[in-house]
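<instruction>
Derive C-alpha cells from the sequence
<data>
Labelled lines for chain and fold
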Amino acid sequence: MAAWTLSAFRDRSQVVMLTLYKSMVRSKLEYCCPVWNPTKVTEIQKLETVQRSFTRKISGCRDLQYWDRLKKLKFMSLQRRRERNSIIHVWKILNEHAPNDTGFEFKSHQRHGIKAEIPAMNKNAQLSVRTDYDNSFRVRAAQLFNVLPSELRSITLLDSFKVGLGRFMEQYPDTPPVPGYTPTNDNSMLSWRRTHSMQLS
C-alpha cells in the first residue's frame, strides 16, 4: 500500500504526504494492534521500517535521521502508538466502552487510585511460558495503564483522557529500534520508566 500510494501521488509536501500516510498506510498497520502488538526488536523494526521509509520521502525530511523526523513531524513511532492504543483499550474496558473479554479486573486504592490488576503467574513456570505471560495483552496493557498518574486514570470522558494521555506520553523519549543505531532501551514506556527509576536510585 505504501509503494502504491507513493507511485500514485507525486506531491511530496508534508500536508499531503501525512494525510495519505495516515489514511491509507498507517490505518492498515495498526488494525487491531492491541491484540498482536509485538515485543521482539526484530519485529518492531520491520513494522517501523514502513513509516521510516515513507517519512523519508516527505519534502524537507530526506536528510534527517528517523528519530529526528519524528520530532519534526510531531509523529509518534508505530511502536509508541501501539502502546497508546493498548492503554486506550484498557480505559474503554474500565469505563464499559468495550467488552471485557480478556477478564480485566480493576482495584481502587485510596493512595494510588484505580489500577488494573496484574494476574498471578506460577513462579515455577517454564521460561517460554513466562515470556508469553509477560508479553500478553492482559499483562502488558495493564502495566502500561498503571504507569499513568492516578488523576489521568480516573478521567471518565474519552476525549479528555486522550488529550491527557498525549501530554503524558510526550514526557518519554521516542527512539524506536532502528538498524544501525543503538538506543538506550527497547523504547517501551515500561523500559523508560525503569530507566528513570534506576537513575533516581
Remarks:
- Residues 78-94 form the longest helix (17 residues).
- The beta strands are 106-109, 113-116.
